[in-house]
Design brief:
The complex is a heterotetramer, with one copy of chain A, two copies of chain B and one copy of chain C.
Chain A lengths: L1 E6 L6 H11 L3 E6 L10 E4 L20 H10 L3 E5 L1 H8 L6 E3 L7 E9 L15 E8 L3 E3 L2 H9 L3 E6 L18 E5 L5 E4 L17 H20 L1
Chain B lengths: L1 E8 L6 H12 L5 E14 L4 H16 L5 E8 L1
Antiparallel strand pairs in B: 1-2, 1-3
Chain C lengths: L8 H6 L4 H11 L5 H10 L2 H4 L4 H4 L9 E3 L6 E6 L2 E9 L1 H6 L1 H17 L4 E11 L5 H21 L3 E8 L8 E11 L14 E6 L9 H4 L20 H16 L3 E6 L4 H13 L2 E5 L12 H6 L5 E6 L4 H10 L3 E9 L3 E6 L2 E7 H6 L14 H5 L12 H10 L7 H4 L10 E3 L6 E4 L6 E7 L2 H6 L1 H18 L3 E10 L6 H21 L3 E7 L3 E2 L2 E2 L3 E10 L16 E5 L10 H7 L11 H16 L3 E6 L4 H11 L8 E5 L6 H6 L6 E5 L4 H11 L3 E7 L3 E6 L8 E6 H9 L1 H7 L2
Parallel strand pairs in C: 4-5, 9-12, 17-18, 24-27
Antiparallel strand pairs in C: 1-2, 2-3, 3-6, 4-6, 7-10, 7-11, 8-10, 9-11, 12-13, 14-15, 15-16, 16-21, 17-21, 19-20, 22-25, 22-26, 23-25, 24-26, 27-28
Helix pairs in contact in C: 7-8, 7-10, 8-10, 10-13, 16-26, 19-20, 19-22, 22-25
The chains are: A alpha/beta, B alpha+beta, C alpha+beta.
Bound molecules: adenosine-5'-diphosphate (ADP) and magnesium ion (MG).
Magnesium ion binds next to loops of chain C.
């Protein structure tokens, strides 16, 4: 499979994502410069973490106007799988591909540490290989991960099982103490209504290899690969 | 023409920075301050001479880029 | 100031040039300088750029070795790590700017060291920060610490270079002169190292990066001056960092270096366009002609003087191959960077600066860069040295409650966990961080190989003020020991020598002895110094900081999976102490915290003993016998044991320890800082083998306890001199006192 | 009383955010905008009734906390 990893000016987890795609998944990782307007030949798209445009003005605010974003919208509207990690999530929010917005962390500081997240919905292409309710230990590294949306949208997210990951304690309890940044409803990751676009603040690419002492993040990439293979199989059969 | 733009969090949205500043002011002994809210202030020069066109342009900038209207509101002034 | 300004005595003095130095300027030029030229000489001959007080002494440092690919003299040093790769590293200070504006000062410090690394053609993969502040009960010091940490965090995080470790110590002596040193490590292909050379007459010179503004004019001279109230007026020189532009500059440079377009490259650090142009020319034995008309500017009306001296950040000077300039410009445009051809390499050895068609400066490049003043400044021990070293330990009472004393030490900010700091640093980006901050050294795997590198930064300024030679040696020994405890063999080091005013004989005395201590230790451990930095004039209102020569060291782990961490792993493991404990209480944290003294001789260090300890520890780790390894440093054995229990990022583990057969005082045993000691934990059935190997190598070793339980219990057996005593604390308590101390100190009203 | 405070970078000091925003506006087709500078805007309530005392207090807040006077300048208004 071909995974496109978008490179915005200021992206800095692009190499980490391509590394996981190629070395861990054994798939092809294609860096996509933000000025590209075509995503032809790509099976899935990853918007990596970093500080696109320095996070100046607001996180993701300027990157959302990159030429490649038009192509990503089309790709998503045609059912293509899009994963936004950290800054990638923030860009998806600004671009309107996912609902809501990010506020500054409640502590106001940048926080880099391991957190636990609970898989709230295992029936998505990004979590297909997880158990529902499974707890993953995954690092966060951000200053603006305090998810906000209006009450109506939040209710819709809840009703449609669009909240995919919630911050939780190591044993899976979703408590205020387990919330590292003040996110509404402990939200760590959400998907769109159609289910093919996911954004999450934690960094699964940072914990996908044994040598780093934790490979809890690998299951997310493996799930994506699995879903892609499944989809391909279907088109071949059809 | 000079545009002065204020972008602030909508009322009702928690403002972590404002809250932190309020707390810091309190620790410094400024006990009279409350409801601190923090926003952005932008200034720019506009090469546009008619007021109407300038207004339309600044408004478009705010809507498109300068404010995220899910959480923020904006207002602007234009001076020559 | 106008360029047509007449040069008066006052103006020369304002530029910090001594009479003799000014005479030498006239000698070199064969005439009086104009105002622009005076500015150029003044920054190039500042202490910061010319190393005029330190050069003769730095020669003592060993700089060669089979692994050395690039020693001192370039933007950074490089050592061979095999697989066709080298580790490129250097450390820099940004002390004065960080005192004036902690956030921007620290941020631009990070920016500067990163540029030093990527100008070499290396991709930066890790940062360390070494910090010194005054005590946190002063609001100003809390403000400085918070500002510095958020500045480092903002810049490093945005760059996508993880800050994986560092060190912080607190002492009142740094209250008006905090230290901010940043170390950066990069990886480059050995055959693709770049240098700052302007070779090839006729080659175009390009300016790449941010536009030039009036930032930091005279930053280099500021770094070469003491502080007093009048320094406030120098404030407009504050530079603002733009990490986003630096990230673009990094990617653009690395992309350019993949091609065959560049001859040489150097960043514009201190003294900006001046130092980069004349140093590049001088290294190649060439001249260089600059036309300032083409320099991208942020502000109108800038004079040649300002353009040459500006320290605007995020800028590079490049020499390209003839005819390749358009290709270079194209790549810069791709990364949205300002870039322009601003000159060419000439054969006459002259740095010639033009503006609007007029020559505004003409100086022999080599003389400017290399013939600056060199001083062998007078040195003498300070009058108070004897008092400092005189400690009557017998007059000091032992603590009544050893548990309370341990908790007090764990709570001391110098010893306490630095989690509050490193949690604000992205320490995982680039996905190499095998051992994150919180262990003796950070360990980074090197992708594409089986190897890993360990890095650490260390120095104990108190040891250095008490005994500069011993202090210098110990800084090197401790750094090496931290690497060894992480399973790495030390292969190279960089230093950042922070000292007071070199015009004071006692400061020069401290400097010379510290350098000799460092040199002797490097020689003994076979670790070459490949880069470094000197920061003098850390003096405010006549008060000089403790001599603080920070050592940044790099170690190689041939098999990455042999990397080691400091915390206990499993209940039931045996605890083994390597090394001998003497009555070393002089200069300890215990003495300061409990007895409010900073006195005595620092712990004694024998280089051979230390070297044997390293060999033994490494052998045990490589043979897979070790579960954890932690060296004893600040706070001694008791603190090291407590850290083994609670520094683990997951579940802490207790321990039961019994110390028998000691004849020294119990406080010296528990909290003394004897060198050359390591606390190991090993599987219970491996303990005998470990002791046998240690004994065979001549390293004192004893099984002192067992891992497990919910408490740390240390029993000291009764001896002829003293009754038994016990340290007994719940893990919860240890964790709180040690883990939350910094946060508590920072949040006090 | 309500205080409205503007904190802006002193002229001549690099404003990376302003620069990036200007660039973004340009790419979005707003070619008429230039000299974009970004600052902070703060609002707070002050439990203080005399104008003089209120002014002194706000000024002190700015100097001590709200503005970094090494690189920033500030101005404020007070309304009842
Ligand atoms: N300023 C800092 N930035 C990042 N990490 C730090 C800093 N200070 C200390 N640390 C980390 O905290 C741990 C303990 O530091 P320290 O007590 O200096 O260790 P040691 O005594 O072994 O040198 C180390 O892993 C170190 O890297
Ligand atoms: Mg150590």
């Amino acid at each position: 499979m071909n995974f496109g990893v978008i490179v915005f000016p200021g992206s800095n987890c692009d190499h980490d994502c391509t590394h996981v795609i190629s070395s861990v998944l054994g798939q092809k990782a294609v860096p996509v410069w933000h000025k590209e307007t075509s995503l032809a030949g790509l099976d899935a798209i990853i918007l990596p973490g970093g500080f696109s445009y320095g996070d100046y003005l607001r996180t993701g605010a300027i990157a959302r106007f990159s030429p490649v974003m038009g192509a990503i919208k089309t790709f998503a509207s045609e059912g293509g799988m899009v994963l936004g990690i950290c800054n990638g999530f923030q860009i998806l929010l600004e671009a309107g591909l996912l609902p809501g917005a990010m506020l500054r962390n409640q502590s106001l500081s940048f926080i880099c540490k391991d957190v636990h997240i609970k898989v709230e919905n295992a029936a998505t292409p990004f979590t297909g290989l997880c158990e529902s309710g499974q707890v993953l230990k995954i690092p966060i590294a951000h200053a603006d991960g305090n998810y906000y949306t209006d009450p109506v949208t939040l209710a819709a997210l809840q009703a449609n099982a669009q909240i995919i990951f919630r911050y939780c304690t190591p044993d899976g309890k979703v408590t205020p103490d387990a919330n590292p940044n003040g996110s509404l409803d402990n939200i760590a990751g959400i998907r769109n209504a159609e289910g093919n676009v996911l954004g999450l603040m934690p960094h699964p690419e940072r914990c996908a290899e044994d040598v780093l002492g934790n490979d809890d993040g690998r299951v997310i990439f493996l799930s994506m690969l699995d879903a892609l293979k499944e989809a391909k199989l279907k088109t071949v059969v059809a | 023409m000079k545009a002065k733009i204020h972008v602030t969090l909508k009322s009702g949205i928690l403002d972590p920075q404002g809250k932190a500043i309020e707390h810091a002011l309190e620790t410094l002994g400024f006990k009279n301050a409350s409801n601190v809210r923090m926003g952005k202030y932008l200034e720019l020069d506009l090469r546009e001479t008619t007021q109407d066109r300038a207004e339309a342009e600044v408004k478009a900038m705010c809507e498109k880029l300068l404010a995220n209207t899910i959480i923020e509101e904006y207002r602007y002034e234009l001076n020559t | 100031m106008k360029d047509s300004q007449v040069i008066t005595k006052d103006i020369i003095a304002q530029h910090g040039l001594a009479d003799d130095e000014y005479k030498k300027v006239i000698e070199i030029l064969g005439r009086e300088p104009n105002f622009t030229e005076l500015g150029i000489f003044s920054v190039m001959w500042s202490e910061h750029c010319s190393y005029k007080s330190s050069r003769v002494h730095l020669k003592k440092l060993p700089t060669t070795g089979p692994r050395v690919v690039q020693g001192p003299g370039e933007n950074a040093g490089a050592v061979d790590i095999g697989d066709g790769l080298c580790a490129v590293f250097k450390m820099e200070s940004h002390n004065h700017p960080s005192f004036i504006e902690p956030y921007q000062g620290a941020a631009t410090g990070v920016g500067g060291i990163l540029r030093d690394i990527f100008t070499m053609g290396a991709r930066p993969i890790a940062l360390l920060d070494s910090l010194r502040f005054g005590l946190l009960d002063r609001p100003k010091n809390r403000h400085l610490l918070k500002g510095v940490v958020s500045g480092i965090s903002a810049y490093g995080n945005c760059m996508g270079v993880p800050t994986v470790g560092g060190e912080i110590a607190f002492n009142e002596i740094y209250s008006n002169n905090p230290l901010v040193n940043v170390f950066c490590l990069g990886i480059a292909r050995k055959d693709r190292l770049f240098k700052g050379t302007a070779a090839g007459v006729g080659n175009p010179v390009l300016y790449v990066g941010s536009k030039t503004g009036r930032d930091g004019i005279h930053g280099a001279t500021m770094a070469s001056d003491s502080f007093d109230e009048a320094s406030e007026s120098k404030r407009p020189t504050v530079q603002v960092g733009d990490p986003f532009t630096e990230k673009l500059l990094l990617e653009a440079c690395l992309e350019l270096m993949e091609t065959d377009l560049l001859v040489g490259i150097q960043d514009m650090g201190a003294a900006g366009l001046t130092s980069s142009s004349c140093e590049m020319a001088s290294r190649a034995g060439n001249g260089l002609e600059l036309d300032l008309t083409h320099v991208p500017r942020r502000e109108p009306g800038m004079t040649p003087y300002e353009l040459m001296l500006s320290e605007s950040q995020e800028r590079m000077l490049m020499v390209a191959k003839q005819g390749k300039e358009d290709e270079v410009l194209r790549i810069c445009r791709k990364w949205d960077l300002d870039a322009a051809v601003v000159g060419r390499v000439t054969g006459d050895g002259i740095l010639r600066v033009k503006d609007q068609g007029k020559v505004v400066a003409e100086i022999p490049a080599k003389a400017l860069a290399e013939d600056g003043p060199k001083y062998e400044r007078p040195n003498a021990p300070p009058a108070y040295q004897e008092y400092l070293q005189a400690l009557n330990f017998d007059a000091l009472k032992e603590p009544k409650d050893y548990t309370a004393t341990l908790l007090e030490l764990l709570d001391a900010p110098t010893i306490a966990s630095k989690r509050w700091v490193y949690q604000q640093y992205d320490h995982m980006v680039r996905t190499n961080s095998m051992v994150r901050p919180g262990s003796d050294a950070a360990v980074l795997r090197i992708k594409g190989t089986n190897k890993a590198l360990a890095i650490t930064a260390d120095c104990n300024g108190r040891y250095c003020v008490l005994h500069p030679y011993m202090g210098g040696m110990i800084a090197v020994a401790e750094a090496a020991r931290n690497l060894v405890c992480s399973g790495a063999e030390p292969i190279g080091l960089t230093d950042c020598l922070n000292f007071g005013n070199p015009e004071r004989p006692e400061v020069m005395w401290q400097f010379i002895l510290s350098v000799e201590g460092i040199a002797d230790a490097c020689q003994a451990f076979n670790v070459p110094v490949v880069s470094g930095n000197v920061s003098f004039y850390n003096e405010t209102n006549g008060l000089n900081i403790y001599p603080t020569p920070i050592i940044g060291m790099v170690g190689l782990i041939e098999e990455a999976d042999k990397a080691m961490t400091q915390w206990f792993k499993r209940a039931g493991d045996a605890i083994v102490l390597l090394g001998a404990t003497r009555e070393d209480v002089g200069g300890t944290e215990y003495l300061r915290v409990v007895h409010h003294r900073e006195q005595g001789e620092p712990p004694y260090l024998n280089l051979d003993t230390e070297k044997t300890l390293h060999a033994c520890t490494l052998k045990l780790i490589r043979e897979g016998l070790v579960q954890s390894a932690h060296d004893c440093s600040d706070g001694g054995l008791a603190v090291a044991l407590a850290e083994c229990c609670v520094s683990v990022p997951t579940q802490p583990l207790g321990a039961v320890v019994r110390l028998t057969g000691y004849t020294i005082r119990r406080d010296a045993l528990l909290f003394g800082e004897s060198q050359s000691r390591v606390v190991l934990s090993v599987k219970a059935d491996a303990a005998d083998k470990v002791l046998t190997i240690a004994k065979a190598m001549g390293v004192p070793a004893a099984k002192i306890g067992t891992v497990g339980g919910e408490r740390l219990v240390i029993d000291v057996e009764a001896s002829k001199q003293a009754s038994a005593c016990r340290v007994d604390a719940e893990l919860k308590t240890l964790l709180d006192r040690w883990g939350n101390s910094l946060e508590r100190a920072l949040n006090q009203a």
